[in-house]
Design a protein that fits this description.
Layout lengths: L1 H100 L1
Length: 102
């Protein structure tokens, strides 16, 4: 009866060792999958962040170009107005000089 108990204990120990080994292997597999998944998630986040940064930069460049274009249009309009004003002042100056000469 003692031998039978010892035999049962040894079989139980072997079963426990087998279960512990399987649990360790499963744990390792789970950790490897988690590491791979984390790497993929990090890569996706980096890609998304880069895409957003590129889109933001493009939008900023478009705003800058529009601001420059608007400023240039205003400057050109002011130049036109100044040329027109200068043209009318030139005519007045010429008329004034002619009037003085006569």
């Amino acid at each position: 009866m003692v031998e039978e108990t010892i035999k049962t204990i040894k079989e139980t120990e072997k079963e426990a060792e087998k279960i512990i080994k399987e649990a360790a292997e499963t744990s390792t597999e789970i950790l490897e999958k988690a590491a791979a998944s984390a790497g993929a998630i990090r890569q996706q986040a980096e890609t998304a962040a880069k895409a957003k940064a590129d889109a933001d930069m493009k939008a900023a460049n478009e705003i800058e170009e529009k601001s420059i274009s608007d400023a240039l249009a205003k400057v050109e309009a002011e130049i036109g107005a100044l040329k027109e004003a200068a043209g009318s002042k030139e005519e007045e100056a010429v008329a004034s000089v002619i009037a003085e000469l006569i």
